[in-house]
What we know:
The chain is of the alpha/beta class.
Amino acid sequence: MGSTPRTIRIAMNGITGRMGYRQHLLRSILPIRDAGGFTLADGSRVQVEPILIGRNEAKVRELAELHGVAEWSTDLDAVINDPTVDVVFDASMTSLRAATLKKAMQAGKHIFTEKPTAETLDEAIELARIGTESGVTAGVVHDKLYLPGLVKLRRLVDEGFFGRILSIRGEFGYWVFEGDVQSAQRPSWNYRKEDGGGMTTDMFCHWNYVLEGIIGKVKSVNAKTATHIPARWDEQDQEYVATADDASYGIFELETPAGDEVVGQINSSWAVRVYRDELVEFQIDGTLGSAVAGLNKCVAQQRAHTPKPVWNPDLPVTESFRDQWQEVPANAELDNGFKLQWEEFLRDIVAGREHRFGLLSAARGVQLAELGLQSNDERRTIDIPEITL
Length: 389
């Protein structure tokens, strides 16, 4: 008969929000719990025990009852200071996050958090410094690198499929309804700068780790932001002024580990209608081949299989360019990306080691967003300096 598994108690803050509930509770922690935890290399098991935290007592209680979670609270500070709590997870509003993470680490708690970790680079660097000094294991959600499409894309990079990489292009976004006739799919604070909203602040921290994780270091940024939809309606059906950018168009200079220069371009918009296979897609072009990856699917085209189109605007195109690409197989069972990173992070806690995607990586994401906004304001390309603690 096996020994009793070790239990890691996880305080989950902001669990009533869309991401906190769907991806972190429903698709990550609860499946781990319901499977009886996970098994370590030595055969021992680790179980998780969530504690739900939110400001709306009725919502938190309802979620706890619905999912059989024994503990819940509206008092974040009390839970942080509970000596039986091992991990504090945060998926609350960006404007509140830095203070929560700081308190948690100073209380000796391991932390796992959504992005951005802070509203300013100075705050993000301070968090990284506190994390190093406190000795806790700190993890920051880098979910997109765990998605099947990007896992396949990275594998092609590692195998040298592209030859010398020339460029990477990304298209992300969809139409977020204004809220007057049809309800919005995203919370209203996302469109208020004073509440920490904004496409650049939200997504450039993602794009930094995606570009780093697939290509290499981001060396410079040139961004143009826009508030395409100036008025929206909130959760109470009240019209409000959108003070944050709802679209951001970025050009990045990248450097591969081999020292090659790569051009990156990513368009991000909540005011775009989708004409592509997935809500986000990345295309890498190289001397020996190209590939396009979404959340799940990845297709590729080798140099030898590349067609030779001829430009003739007077004749309709008769060949199907999409049919000339070959799908890249997964060659493995790939679980939910959030769940995979949670398990990796929890294993790092048990082993007493750093998580590979920590607060310094998050600080570089905040830096890219901050410099992207500065680039827009000053209408120029800005070089990205190294961060030192």
